[in-house]
């Protein structure tokens, strides 16, 4: 195990999701954050991943198509009066 | 440990059992649009996805009397949805390789290896072509950018598309995704990583 070796950028980009999901062991979180402290490229990469997640989240739609909503309500009424 | 049924969910369950249309409308509002989006990843057409959602609700209504609260209501709903959608997808000859286990396919690196310094360099594995700022910021917010994201998701292997859709579009927790898809924590994370990585790459290509 080379636990104390610095992470390379190529390694860090593979760990970004584990980092954001908080599933990295504490020691690896430290290595990850130590690397970020001096590496602008990786800082930018992490920021882009966060931006990607935020943009993807904007695709959420709350509304059902009205015809489907009517169809489901009809089904419900059929069920509840059966 | 999974969060079990919340008081709010229990109120809706009791409402459904009592035949309350208001409870049904609340549930439809909470989960209907998410169900339709998830269903669409399993079947070929929007029309079939709507059938799947309708079938799911019928199964929910039939089964609500037996719902025991061993999982959250949301988990239970989406288990029924994914099972219904899977069956329908298989019948259509389109099955989603859920069990596509992390690591059994060769996906390559998250970032093109050419963008890092090679082994002969002084700092091997460090950026030679680092990512640059995405500017201007309002481009990120434009409708066309969302089209780029949608196209990138459409191009993903189905299991990756499902995970990113549930997590990042519909806001499910990792546990809710694992329960709906019946996959492991690690598998969920690897699929999410691959999916997000590809969407980031598509955005980078578009914005740079």
Write up this protein.
- The complex is a heterodimer of chains A (82) and B (208).
- Chain A has helices at 9-20, 26-38, 40-57, 66-80.
- Chain A has a single domain (9-80), classed as Arc Repressor Mutant, subunit A.
- Chain A is an all-alpha fold.
- Chain A is elongated and about 70 Å long.
- The longest helix of chain A has 18 residues, at 40-57.
- Chain A starts with 8 loop residues before the first helix and ends with a helix.
- Chain B is an all-alpha fold.
- Chain B has two domains: 7-91, RNA polymerase sigma factor, region 2, helix turn helix motif (Rna Polymerase Sigma Factor, Chain: A, Orthogonal Bundle), CATH 1.10.1740; 113-207, Winged helix-like DNA-binding domain superfamily/Winged helix DNA-binding domain (Arc Repressor Mutant, subunit A).
- In chain B, helix 2 (21-39) packs across helix 3 and helix 2 packs across helix 4 (73-91).
- Chains A and B meet through helix 1, helix 3 and helix 4 of A and helix 2, helix 3, helix 6, helix 7 and helix 9 of B.
């Amino acid at each position: 195990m080379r636990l104390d070796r610095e992470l390379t950028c190529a390694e860090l980009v593979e760990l970004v999701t584990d980092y954001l999901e908080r599933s990295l062991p504490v020691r690896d979180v430290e290595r990850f954050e130590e690397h970020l402290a001096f590496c602008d490229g990786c800082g930018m990469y992490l920021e882009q991943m966060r931006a990607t997640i935020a943009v993807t989240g904007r695709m959420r739609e709350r509304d059902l198509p009205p015809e489907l909503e009517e169809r489901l309500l009809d089904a419900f009424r059929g069920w509840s009066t059966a | 440990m999974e969060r079990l049924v919340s008081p709010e969910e229990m109120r809706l369950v009791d409402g459904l059992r009592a035949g309350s249309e208001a409870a049904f409308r609340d549930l439809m509002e909470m989960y209907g649009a998410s169900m339709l989006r998830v269903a669409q990843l399993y079947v070929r057409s929007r029309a079939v996805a709507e059938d799947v959602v309708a079938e799911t609700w019928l199964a929910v209504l039939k089964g609500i009397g037996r719902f025991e609260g061993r999982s959250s209501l949301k988990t239970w709903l989406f288990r029924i949805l994914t099972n219904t959608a899977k069956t329908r997808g298989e019948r259509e000859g389109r099955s989603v390789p859920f069990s596509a286990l992390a690591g059994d396919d060769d996906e390559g690196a998250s970032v093109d290896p050419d963008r890092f310094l090679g082994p002969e360099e002084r700092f091997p594995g460090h950026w030679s072509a680092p990512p640059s700022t995405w500017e201007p910021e309002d481009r990120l917010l434009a409708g066309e950018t969302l089209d780029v994201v949608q196209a990138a998701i459409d191009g993903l292997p189905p299991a990756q598309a499902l995970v990113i859709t549930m997590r990042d579009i519909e806001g499910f927790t990792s546990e809710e995704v694992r329960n709906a898809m019946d996959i492991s924590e690690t598998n969920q994370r690897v699929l999410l990583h691959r999916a997000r990585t590809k969407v980031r790459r598509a955005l980078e290509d578009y914005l740079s």
